[in-house]
Amino acid sequence: MGLLFPDHFLWGASTAAHQVEGNNTNSDFWLMENLEGSLFKEPSGSAVDHYNRYREDIAAMARLGLNAYRFSIEWARIEPEEGRFEPAEIEHYRDMLLACKESNITPIVTLHHFSSPQWLIREGGWESAQTPARFARYCTHVMRELGDLLPYVCTINEANISIGIKKIMKRMQAQAKTPGAQVGLNTGDNMSQMQKYFMALSKAFGLPPTEVHSFLAPRTENGLTTIFQAHREAKAAIRRISPLTKVGVTLSLYDIQSVPGGEEQAAHAWQEEFLQFLPYLQDDDFFGLQNYTRAVYGPEGILPLPEGAEITQMGNEYYPEGLGAVVRYVSKQLNIPIIITENGIATDDDTRRVAFIDQALKGVHDCIADGIQVNGYMHWSLMDNFEWQLGFSKRFGLIEVDRTSQERTIKPSGIHLGNIAKRNAIQ
């Protein structure tokens, strides 16, 4: 029988619209990818054509045995110009949700997953005091149209990600071999290319380059407040229109550890990356927990990766044990149900993904056995896809995609997770 999970546990995988749909032409990322000297290793183009193949992909999940799908609705499609909502795009996402319903798959929808409408960035982006109201207006429109089909909504993906990005950029400038970002960043090492890119960026948005505030740009303290205020205002709007929809936010969390003498540094990291945001989360219906690896602190700060450690394609230590540890830490600070909204590894060795899933899920099962309420596990990612500035080279998927033909091939890891879901147990 193995280690049983609770009845009604949500077993699934995640995607983000810009990374899988393709041709997201009204988004800030589309513009940035196609600039001269772009920091993106390649443009997203048609991505993996999920925009047209979503029914095929959802049906594949159902055949595997998965019962949940976390995906995002793209703001840049819904509101391509400020105040102009696109009915055809609402109908597109309505059909996605109906496809989930037909396949008995529970949708967990994220309303903002990194990409934003170009007009929002021109209006000050994620540093503007007007952004929370604009985001709440978009969320209001989506919920009015689709709320009856949305049991779970994540307002914003990895609302704290800019803190990690700032740290990564600082460490890369110091050439420190430490854990990588939990998002695909290309920090670049060609200064003239960087200057060309920033000039092109400035021209494209009609702003000084320091005022192009996309979601993944380093934040000011004011910008962080803007993001979490956007979560708060969106949550209130969603509850007014669709009170039965469960609302949460997702955060990117390392398993923060310390060696002797590093306890204070580790405590500061937890405060900076998680604890300071607790006031915004206390009345959420669930918490979306996202973990990929650990970060170990010493007296002087974050330590290099351990000698001889297995490293993923993202430059992270292979460390599936981190998931259970972070679930335990979060549960002590926040008394709401947890859904694991992302967990996985970038690798071409699918046997390591299978082993990672097993080890991570054993940690989750131990947490549940100790009384912690974990309601689901969404693997990142359903398919190999566009890893932001790093392009298509990083393989996170349970399903491989040939981008020439767009043909899908289910990996052994996809079959493995599906079998776990069918049994509701790990061996």
TrEMBL record:
One of its GO terms (molecular function) is beta-glucosidase activity. Keywords: Glycosidase, Hydrolase. Its EC number is 3.2.1.21. GO terms for biological process: carbohydrate catabolic process. The active site is at E342. It is an enzyme of class 3 (hydrolase). InterPro entries: GH, Glyco_hydro_1, Glyco_hydro_1_AS. Gene3D superfamilies: Glycosidases. One of its GO terms (cellular component) is cytosol. PANTHER family: GLYCOSYL HYDROLASE, LP05116P. Belongs to the glycosyl hydrolase 1 family. This is beta-glucosidase. It comes from Paenibacillus catalpae.
